[in-house]
Amino acid sequence: MDLYRHLFSRVLYPAWESGLRGRPTLRRLAYLEKTQWRPLDELEAIQAGALQRLLRHAYENVPFYRRRFAEAGITPNAIRSVADLHKLPILRREDAQGSAQERTANRGATVEIRKSTSGTLGRPLVFGYERSSENWRHAMKLRGYGWAGYRPGQRSLHFWGAGPPRVDTANLQTRLRDLKINTDRALRRERYVDCGHRGSAELDAVVDIIRREKIEVIVCYSQAGADLARHIIAGGLRTWPDIPVICGAERLLMPDRIALEAAFGTGVFETYGSREVMLMASECPAHAGLHTSMETLVVEVVVREGERTRAASPGELGEVVITDLTNLAMPFIRYANGDLAVPAVPGTCACGRALPRLASIEGRVTETLIDGTGARVNGLVFNVVIAHLAHGIRQFQVVQHRDRSVTLKVAPTLEYGAEVEAVLRQTWERYLPGVPVSLELVTDIPTAASGKRQVVVVER
Ligand SMILES: [Zn+2]
How far apart are CA 119 and CA 25, in angstroms? Predict the structure, then answer.
């Protein structure tokens, strides 16, 4: 361990997290480091306790859920464990979008952090939660990343999506926020590189950072990491020992995993997270599926049968349904986030953890766009930007035609205006140079036959 990392993990980081920023993240991490080794029945008891607390709170203090309990003809007493959760209806994305106010608790917890997501269905969703939930999220992320060998203070490269282009960089508040984020990242030795546009020059620059800054761990969008890996393999550019790679945001496909292993070694780890709840599941060193974050979330995989749902069998594809046990301010109870997954065969993993596993996450594959020079561009760049424009955009879809021209379809809200349009324009000028883009305002974007609305369509 180098001196900085030692100092960081023993002194700087605890002081920063617990003192300066007043976050009990490390206490929670210490708790989660212990619970991960508990037998399944104990973990289920922990989860059931947190679930009952959430349901009672939601029933008493959240109008939306009070109504849902009444409609289902039950009270929280009818749900003793996760196995009873099917008695409550699924919260669909469209239900969640139209009910922000009604889903906010009027007592017992306060929304302190507000965010929005474009999701995988091209319809932005605004949500909120309390600071204590934020601490749990970070603790869970540190635990999951820790399985890949990540330790705070290591020199990490984050080959990840950037936020929207800054329209107002002169604004003092914006500058202060940027300064805070940059200080935080510098202290943690986190290096962020936008993975949106992946031409040869950009990928060479990333290789240069890995070499020059002696990167010790890489966190990346799965397909962005794979493009980087293929660039390294093709050019014979690897000059480093093994570096663990933590993949997220997109499904990690087998050919991509193989490329990543060739470029960085066999420590390749898939993670499954979302903006709504952060880390939902994470791959352990046994590489035998992804363990769910069961102390802070209920991750169900369900199959719909008419109005009813049942749990998917091991190996069976189903919808991911999330209950966030730490968000009391604006609860997500049985929220179908639009992803599909396959539960693994039950049983303790070779790593020794009993935390239930997902065998795979399906359907989280984004199309790759091509810019005017032929360079690959991550289809998620618009998701990332539009997540910040939720007030102005109801639905969107990016269509790249055979001649490479792009049509950006947007279903606007009443608040859509010149400012939103300016951000969209800057986004395509930055990521799709040399591509003619036309913006088309529409009233609705129909779903595909699968029921999913594809966010990025590439015509072939
Ligand atoms: Zn395991």
Answer: 26
Of 407, 164, 404, nearest to 396 (Cα)?
Answer: 407
What pLDDT is recorded for position 52? 95
Distance CA 123, CA 409 (A): 12
How far apart are the CA of 139 and the centre of ligand 1, in A?
Answer: 18
How many CA within 13 A on the CB side of residue 332? 32
CA distance 309 to 304: 4
On whether the CB atoms of residues 425 and 419 are closer than 8 A, the answer is: no
User: Which residue type does 203 have?
Assistant: L
Q: How far is the CA of 187 from the centre of ligand 1 (A)?
A: 31
Residue 208 neighbours by CB under 8 Å, 6+ apart: none
Ligand 1 center–CA 429 separation, angstroms = 43
Whole-number Å distance between alpha carbons of 152 and 13: 8
Place of tokens 């849902």: 68
Q: CA–CA separation, 388 vs 165, rounded Å?
A: 10
Which pLDDT does position 162 carry in this prediction?
79
For residues 43 and 35, is the Cβ–Cβ distance under 8 A? Answer: yes
- Measured in Å, residue 173 CA sits from the centre of ligand 1 at 44
How much distance in Å is there from the Cα of 286 to the middle of ligand 1? 5
- pLDDT averaged over consecutive 10-residue blocks of the chain (460 residues)? 66 58 82 96 94 96 97 95 94 86 95 81 81 95 96 91 66 74 77 90 96 96 94 97 94 92 96 94 96 98 86 92 97 92 94 96 80 87 80 88 94 90 92 94 77 77
Which residues have a Cβ under 8 Å from the Cβ of 419 and sit 6 or more positions away?
167, 392
Cα–Cα nearest to 249, from 152, 82, 364, 406: 364
Do the bridges between strand 393-400 and strand 456-458 make them parallel or antiparallel, or are there none, so unpaired?
A: parallel
Whose CA is closest to 30, among 350, 295, 347, 299? Answer: 295
Yes or no: say if 229 and 259 are a contact pair by the CB < 8 Å rule.
yes
At 421, the amino acid letter reads: E
Q: Which two tokens stand for residue 1?
A: 């361990």
Continuous H helices in 83-221? 93-97, 131-147, 172-188, 200-212
Q: Whole-prediction pTM value?
A: 0.84
* DSSP secondary structure, 251-280, as one string: ---HHHHHHHHHHH-S-EEEEEEETTTEEE
- Answer whether 105's CB lies under 8 Å from 330's CB: yes
Distance of CA 290 from the midpoint of ligand 1 (Å): 7
How many whole angstroms from 34 Cα to the centroid of ligand 1? Answer: 15
φ, ψ for residue 93, nearest 5 deg: -60, -40
